[in-house]
């Protein structure tokens, strides 16, 4: 087998380092947990909002939540963030999503809401989708009761 030149090996190392740094391939999956609920009224319907936080939100770099006008918009928001966050029930049904979080700390204010007379799913999870790299980070299943 032919040996690679030192120059080629250095180029490969630089390329792999830049790909790893840019893609954030070593990021952990989010650790989701319920922090509380509250009731509110929307168009005459009593709703329950389920508030969650991500325990390891500090593990995510700020740049994955940067405004990304170069990527497709979120409705009329042409400066939607690079990474979108979606809630799903334990069967994979999408419940709600966020497309404009500006920093990792904003993961402490994510939620979904349901009519108060509707039984919530027992478990939910989130997916963080880095739209720039097409990478998904799926959380644990989190309970919807304290």
Report on the architecture of this protein.
The protein is mainly β and 146 residues long. It has a single domain, classed as Immunoglobulin-like (Sandwich), CATH 2.60.40. It is built from one helix and eight strands; from the N terminus they run αββββββββ. Strands 3, 4, 6, 7 and 8 form a five-stranded antiparallel sheet that branches. It has a three-stranded antiparallel sheet with strand order 1-2-5, with no helix packed on it. A hairpin with a 4-residue loop joins β3 and β4. The N terminus is likely disordered.
Topology overview:
Layout (H helix, E strand, L loop, with lengths): L5 H18 L8 E11 L2 E10 L28 E7 L4 E5 L11 E6 L7 E8 L4 E4 L3 E2 L3
Antiparallel strand pairs: 1-2, 2-5, 3-4, 3-6, 6-7, 6-8
Short characterization:
The protein is mainly beta and 146 residues long.
Could you tell me the number of beta strands?
8
Low-confidence stretches: 1-23
The main β sheet shows up as: 5 strands, antiparallel
Number of domains: 1
Distance between the termini: 61 Å
CATH topology (level 3) name: Immunoglobulin-like
β-strand amount = 35-45%
Question: In DSSP terms, counting alpha (H) and pi (I) runs of 4 or more, how many helices?
Answer: 1
Round the Cα radius of gyration to an integer and report it. Answer: 19 Å
Shape: globular
Q: Percent range for helical residues?
A: 10-25%
List its salient traits.
146 residues, five-stranded antiparallel sheet, mainly beta, single chain, disordered N terminus
